[in-house]
């Protein structure tokens, strides 16, 4: 029995509320169980120096956790400096979202996705990617409505979910009690059409078999299909 009482292949309750902030070109609050992340998309008519005069667009990301997002207070990273974990997650979010993007169609402009974890209960990077795509979709919709892009730069939804081996069983969408005790855990990033973008898997205290890895991939594929449905409903597609 999972601590939450969920089935092995059951996602936590997922909701995505859009239009959370006034000024961002796209925004949403994603809740995956007790993990809550505010995602915003900011559009700029510039690109990093290495992309100037290439005609290519860029999507990048920043990630952070509020001081009381976890059980005990942590200092803001603006005060103590970014951790290696934060930098790694930011890069993961950025490259994941770029995988579903036609950078030529976007044109020479940049969209920055900010993911701020309000409350953490496992899977914050996965929730950030899933909610980040919704914020990105809303920002791109504004560009299309204003006829600033000719064709849709977003070719496929992008979502992410965690899976792991908990109490000897493959389970979908780990919450903190499971994540902290899982013998194997992984993060899976995929497109809406089922293509893999990134897989991060590691064993802690127990190895895993090829068969178990395949079981986790199957769970992730089904879970991401469900997340994409929620994403599309949130953006009216």
Automatic annotation (TrEMBL):
SUPFAM superfamilies, sorted: Ribonuclease PH domain 2-like (SSF55666), Ribosomal protein S5 domain 2-like (SSF54211)
Presence of keyword tRNA processing: yes
GO molecular function: 3'-5'-RNA exonuclease activity; tRNA binding; tRNA nucleotidyltransferase activity
Keywords per UniProt: Nucleotidyltransferase, RNA-binding, rRNA processing, Transferase, tRNA processing, tRNA-binding
The keyword Aminoacyl-tRNA synthetase belongs to this UniProt entry's keyword annotation: no
CDD domains membership: RNase_PH_bact (cd11362)
Protein's GO biological process: rRNA 3'-end processing; rRNA catabolic process; tRNA processing
Catalytic activity from the UniProt record: tRNA(n+1) + phosphate = tRNA(n) + a ribonucleoside 5'-diphosphate
UniProt-listed Enzyme Commission number(s): 2.7.7.56
Database matches in Pfam families: RNase_PH, RNase_PH_C
Chain ranges of the Exoribonuclease phosphorolytic domain: 10-139, 156-222
InterPro entries: ExoRNase_PH_dom1 (IPR001247), ExoRNase_PH_dom2 (IPR015847), ExoRNase_PH_dom2_sf (IPR036345), PNPase/RNase_PH_dom_sf (IPR027408), Ribosomal_Su5_D2-typ_SF (IPR020568), RNase_PH (IPR050080), RNase_PH_bac-type (IPR002381), RNase_PH_CS (IPR018336)
Binding site for phosphate: 85, 123-125
Protein family (similarity comment): Belongs to the RNase PH family.
NCBIfam families: RNasePH
Assembly mode: Homohexameric ring arranged as a trimer of dimers.
Its job: Phosphorolytic 3'-5' exoribonuclease that plays an important role in tRNA 3'-end maturation. Removes nucleotide residues following the 3'-CCA terminus of tRNAs; can also add nucleotides to the ends of RNA molecules by using nucleoside diphosphates as substrates, but this may not be physiologically important. Probably plays a role in initiation of 16S rRNA degradation (leading to ribosome degradation) during starvation.
Protein's UniProt name: Ribonuclease PH
Native species: Meridianimarinicoccus aquatilis
């Amino acid at each position: 029995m999972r601590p939450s009482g969920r089935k092995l292949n059951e996602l936590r309750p997922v909701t995505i509320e859009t239009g959370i902030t006034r000024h961002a070109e796209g925004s949403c609050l994603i809740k995956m169980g007790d993990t809550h992340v505010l995602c915003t998309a900011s559009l700029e008519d510039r690109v990093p120096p290495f992309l100037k005069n290439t005609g290519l667009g860029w999507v990048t990301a920043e990630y952070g956790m509020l001081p009381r997002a976890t059980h005990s207070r942590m200092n803001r990273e603006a005060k103590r400096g970014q951790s290696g974990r934060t930098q790694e997650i930011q890069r993961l979010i950025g490259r994941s979202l770029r995988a579903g993007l036609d950078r030529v169609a976007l044109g020479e402009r940049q969209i920055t996705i900010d993911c701020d974890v309000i409350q953490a209960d496992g899977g914050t990077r996965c929730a950030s990617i899933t909610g980040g795509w919704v914020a990105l979709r809303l920002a791109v919709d504004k560009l299309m409505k204003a006829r600033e892009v000719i064709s849709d730069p977003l070719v496929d939804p992008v979502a992410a979910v965690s899976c792991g081996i908990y109490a000897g069983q493959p389970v979908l969408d780990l919450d903190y009690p499971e994540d902290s005790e899982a013998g194997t855990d992984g993060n899976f990033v995929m497109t809406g059409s089922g293509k893999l973008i990134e897989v991060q898997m590691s064993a802690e205290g127990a190895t895993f078999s090829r068969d178990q890895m395949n079981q986790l991939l199957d769970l992730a594929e089904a879970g991401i299909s469900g997340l994409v449905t929620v994403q599309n409903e949130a953006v009216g597609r």
